[in-house]
Amino acid sequence: MNLPMCYILGAGGHGRVVLETAQACGAFKACLFLDGNATLHGTQIMGALVLGGEDALPPPGPEVAVLPALGDNHRRLALTLDLLSQGYTVPTVVHPRAWVSPHATLGAGTVVFAMAVVQPGAILGCSCIVNTAASVDHDCVLGDGVHCSPGVRLAGGVQVGDCTHLGIGSCVIQEMRVGEQCVVGAGAAVVKDIPPDSLALGVPAVVVRKLPPRDVG
Q: Which terminus of the chain has fewer CB atoms gathered within 10 Å of its CB, N or C?
């Protein structure tokens, strides 16, 4: 079977974790980085060549898979949607030491890192990150571009809106809703719904201020 090359967009810290996850899952012939930092071009990072910038990306085809690896939720999602509109394959990548139920759904460009868990009935949109040792329980619904940081815990039936960032070690009790474009701080415990465009901190989490709405891109 001919495996595609995986072109990872972004050679920063998150990109390196994506690289190791993509290598570990065994779905690609090899992985290459594309990055806008010209000083990296032609170098190797963890054995993967930084081929050039995004202009070095070959045309769409069965031998090409492209995976945006940017920490910024809005930019990562915008890249994913643009690539899909051009006909590129944007894969879903799951580390072999993660558990994703066969009855869960993951959108294009979503990555699930080592020791993470996604349970039955969960639906994750495009370009989500389920980071190291995070857990998404049964029947959760995550919009596009959501980032569950390391150690996040989502109980059953939680809904999270597009481009929301759940900080490291935060948790959300069952059936709660966290709106789009929110930031939930590290270690926060969400025990009631959080409206869109909110910064929520503390135990229990409270909204401390509104965030300016931001377009994807």
A: N
